[in-house]
Amino acid sequence: MDPRLVNVAAVAACASSARDVTRTLEVVPRQWKVIETVREKFSCRDCEKISQAPAPFHAVPRGWAGPSLLAMIVFEKFGQHQPLNRQAERYALEGVPIALSTMADAVGAVCASLDPLLRLLEAHVMAAERLHADDTTVPVLAKGKTDTGRCWIYVRDDRPFGGAGPPAAMFYYSPRPQGRASPGASGGVCRHPAGGRL
What we know:
The chain contains three helices and five strands. The chain has helices spanning 67-79, 84-93, 100-126; strands at 41-43, 50-52, 132-142, 145-156, 168-174. A hairpin with a 2-residue loop joins strand 3 (132-142) and strand 4.
């Protein structure tokens, strides 16, 4: 917050009895920046070797995008359902042209980097004593038509039963209605919210 006080000297003759606060919501436009890291190379006259400081860490090896940009692209794609082509158009309007294929490569690299974490989460969810599941159809945009896809959700939450394990959820998706759910989920009996067996 940026408090702006009225000039007290102008009203010094009067005694202060109360205060009114006016709040105005503002927005600071997004700022793009290129962080340039310069690494000097040194050569040794005695051993004739060249040495250089290591390159800075990148979330994606040899990546061009910083972690905040990668997080924004992935969140807008999966969290806000914003297709990469629309993101690319918006970034170009802001003066930062990023090729659609470059963004797609970045999303793939982020997903590959997060895969070990995903497998740990999946193992935690599927090891639950009780597993809540749902099988839902979802509309999928295709060229000139709308197809039907499937989404399977598995939830582990033992808090209502006195369990101490942290709650978690896994989502599986197939763009085709005949797709199958996680291979690890077929071992037990799952109850559908409507009461039927899955």
